[in-house]
Here is the input.
Amino acid sequence: MVIEPASVVRAAISLLPVLCFLLALLALDSYKLVRLRMVAAVIALGCLAAGLSYVVNLAAIRVLGVDFSAYSRFGAPLVEEAIKSSIVLLLIRTNRIGFLVDASVFGFAVGTGFALIENLYYLNELADTHVAVWIVRGFGTAILHGGVQSIFAALVLTNVDQRGAMNLRAVGLPLIFAALVHAAFNQFALPPIYETLAVLLSLPPLMLWVFARSERALQGWIGADFDSDQEMLQLLASGTLSESPVGHYLHDLRARFSGEVIADLLCYLRLHCELALRAKGVLLMRENGLDVPIDEHTREKLEEMHYLERSVGPSALRTVQPLLSISRRDLWQIYMLGK
Here is the structure.
């Protein structure tokens, strides 16, 4: 089988831009918050999302009895963004995403996988199409898929941080935004090449701005929480815990929980602070180009903390949230150590 040079050019134009942009995002991540293995897994999920979207779109066209052209302009964007977004929401829910930087990377990775499968499909269906079509698909549609999901992930993460929960209000508006941007591109109100230029001139600069803002916020967060974790550890080791507000708070909990549970909660507080400090140290060393492996002692502490979580139960864990200000980012720190 002879591969024509023109086919290679069309494939390169349609597939490489989105991959190159994703690699650029990874290079910009100075804290190395995401691993290539995880990015590859998310790309694979994006590929599956493309296949599922194809099946759902075909079924919707048959059931609704609408024209393919009309459906692609209005129905397909909502279906495709909803399916892609479910992957991002799963990553946030399971604490695989902690900051705007990794949200942007994983969101773009989802869109990358989706775009790769979609463009491979069209390469097979439209084998002899003019190269301009692949410029639009490679630099326009593919970047759109990744960029819209990247912004969606950042918006949802911001909402979750502000609201303290992932609910319809936190997810709804970002999803509508993603679907509207996608639908606007599919209208082709402008010549396709102009829409491609609009995507290139708007989405990448916006994503770079998110990166710069997140890196500054992450640096400040590490410094502030580092001090609070150290203070809590010093208090737990000082021997004067019973005289402190933390000690009074734990004493009041004796009316609700047994002495064994209170003792486990004290161990949990200590382990959480130690692991949080370790996680922040790992981030700082990664920023300076040092990839620090997780030692066996740290893994043992992780296992002990997980055991204590199961032992005391969710009700008791909720009572220590005011002491540690346990947030989604704190959970993400612990997840990062276990990777």
The first helix runs from residue 5 to 28. The chain has a mean pLDDT of 85. The chain has two domains: 5-215, 238-338.
